[in-house]
Amino acid sequence: MPNLMSKEHLGLLFEYATVGLVYGLLPETIYPFMQQYLNCSGSQVAAAKQLVVLPWSFKVFYGILSDCRPIFGYRRRPYMLIGWTICIIMLLVMAIMPIGKPYYTVASDRDVAVADYTDEIRARINYDAPSEGAKYVIIMFFAAFGYVMADVCADSITVELAQREPIDKRGKTQSCIYTVRTVMVIFGELLTGFFFNGEEYGGDFDFSLSFPQLMIIVTVLSLPVLPMTWYFIKEEKVERADFKEYISGFWNLLCCRAVYQVIAYNFFANIFADFTYTASTPVASYMVDVTPINSTVSDILSNLLFMFGIMITSKWGLHWNWRWMIVCTAATVIVADCAVAMIVVWDIFRNQWFWLGPPIVVQLPYGVGWIISTFVTVELAQLGNEAAVYGLITTVTNVAAPFATSLTLLVDGPFNITNDRVKEDDHSVRMDITYTIIIMYAAMVFAWVFLFLLPKQKEDAQRILREGGKSKILGGVTVAYLTFAIIWSILTNVLAIFDIAAAKQLVILPWSFKVFYGILSDCRPIFGYRRRPYMLIGWTICIAMLLIMAIMPIGKPYYTVASDRDVAVADYTDEIRARINYDAPSEGAKYVIIMLFAACGYVLSDVCADSITCELAQQEPIDKRGKTQSAIYVVRTALVIFGELLTGFCFNGEDYGGDFNFSLSFPQLMIIVTVLSLPVLPMTWYFIHEEKSEPANFRQYINDFWDLMCSRAVYQVIAYNFFAGIFNTITYTASSPVASYMVDVTPINSTVSDILSNLLFMAGIMITSKWGLHWNWRWMILATGAVVIVVDCAVAMMVVWDVFRNQWFWLGPPIVVQLPYGVGWIISTYVVVELAQVGNEAAVYGLITTVSNVAQPFATSLTLLMDGPFDITNDRVKEDDHSVRMDITYTIIIMYSCMAFSWVFLYWLPKQKEETQELLRKGGHSKLIGGITVFYLVFAIIWSIMTNIMAIFDSTSCLIIAGGTGC
After folding, report:
1. Residue 2 lies in a domain
2. Measured between alpha carbons, how far is 336 from 366 in angstroms, rounded to an integer?
3. End-to-end distance of the chain based on CA atoms, in angstroms?
4. Quick check: keyword Transmembrane in the entry (predicted)?
5. What is the residue range of 854's domain?
6. Which of 9, 371, 749, 902 lies at a C-alpha separation of 20 to 30 Å from 860?
């Protein structure tokens, strides 16, 4: 029997103790902090609870990494240290972040019915508070990402120890470590309950800690886990596993009947067993007035009884029938919970401890059932894949929980149970809550249908493992539904948590990652094909996202009466303010997130198409090289024009600030785009010729790619594209407000302008293809850039200073400059073909275009940084006074100065194709500059993502780095 108190294993107990502390504390803060302090909606709170524990759904991937890739010969301890370092950093971030005001700035307002709100109460309520919750949940998510990595490695050691136990004692090690973890979960809950019970959290203590202060305490308590992990866990050095052989063995295990049957039970049974209802926290908050301290005491007592259930099973229940015990424990839970819920909802009897008491008692049998369901995992693990198998089985259970929450949100959504409705506490909301409760318990009973998939006991599990046979079809089906569940859970729960406006850059951000798509496509052919299968995958993702947007309900516009759009903010009457839909901006985020995933799909397809284009272009004679690229970009631009026509014509009604008496809704337009996109699937497979190829040796591929990165021709062209691209694409934040409020550009005219611009852009490409294949690249970019600056600047100044204002004067000259701009743009892309080599076309083409794409959001970040201090808001532009005109002028001058400064970097761009090839042959190599190139590109990507995400959140958009004026 392993001795967990020995020096070799004491650190393992400390691992589980610290996991218990953080795992118990972080989710426990959601009720007092998000529900009570920030007053987030029930669906937001439900989604937040799942997002905080979502990393548990990825344990299998941590396990595979830990099993296969030892660090300095160790498979577990280094990953534990990495995980805890990530977790502690996230705790520190939360400890230093400023915290906003609570929703109820005066605590007594919490007890006032919504119908009784006075103007004074409404004025002092912080309606922006619910939007603050998302940033904390995201950081908690990354903290969980860290400690789950450590937990997976600890689990694998636990499995190894458990397998050394005799069969009649097997289960005691698991019971012991889960008892320790549960004790520390209780301690974490005690910390939360005691320190989060002040008035601002809906409690009755006259003191409390702020959220950052509690995070400091947790950080300090977590720090000792680092030395304990390294010095008090014994681990032997091992050789690195052969990944292909490891995955093959893991796949064979997954195809075993015992494994896919247990996975199916854990997944489908837990989906229904974990069903809940979104009204749970609002009922506790408003119908029963549960204080944070009592909620925490309830959780503590629940965990104590849960722990006793584990201990009872360890002493007497190691040979109980697993199926019958799960039925008995679940039945007890349902009867007790249902009775209490109905009595409370219908106001037969309401009391905090009546609401909290019975659910505490049922934790004893629930603990018995839970530990029994984990015993089967030890029987399935094999030598060498302990982390992956333990992670897989527990991942299935964990991914079922957020998937159940997703279905809960989907099922409960039509009942529209909001905090305000629960506070009203009328017959209609009680009926709606009752329906959701009945649905929940019906789902829990239905979970028993899947019990036949669970072995009865350890011996039964081993017998099925030996005699159950294998099925690759069912193994594949298992992988498919688990993958779908993970994607569904992430998408729906992330969308539920965000109540924020979104930024344009996030929609096009996937273009900044083309190089990674290219490496994937170059190295890992599917069924022997490197391009077409990835194209199909990409378009399938994109079309699925379009369908989601087509079926999602759309809310009311910001201006419910279109004429209000033309009224100055200072002239708003109470009637106008009452009918404006101030919640409309918060609807934007969900569409931006889905568009982001759609872009991830079609960019994958585009990268593969680019690589084929590169191969074809390299087959052209040198004097004609560039015609293929010109042709495909002409086609793409023509269809861009068609897309703009659709948008401009269908989105020009009064709701969109236009003057048509008709328009389509956003979902209707998405249906049209979906139908028009569907033919790309058969056309991709049947009308693109591609030869089969073998998978590349990844290490050799990366070495060759690195050598190419270190060649002067490549890092010099990258430097030009990046630094010139940054300054050339800097803009000014007042552009859209000027068009909207100073010039009154209608959507249809804006679209006509975009169409004409793209026509002239396309003409520029065609002119270059016919006459400009041998023009000097540097001089043409300089000449076209100068024309753009002169024409654009003249128009902008006349409009801003009201010398002459007219839609077509504003839109016309910028249309004309698209002709030389098209010439300059296509010339800058020709260099890519000269740099690509056989076998890495997708990666090189993706790399160079990634550089250009990542420069754009980086330029946007700098635009926000430079323009932020001028504070040019929509309201200021509508006022149109001297001060705002001066501020806009300054930002315009900054923009054109940056565009001119971009010419400084032209000496890095070769003059023509021949010079590029000569530079590639004779330019030499430098690993130092290659490394610097990788560094600044990685920095730019991270900067772009972080600053654009900061600009989304109300609480961080005020930061200078995100383009604000300072918080």
Report:
1. no
2. 12
3. 59
4. yes
5. 504-962
6. 749
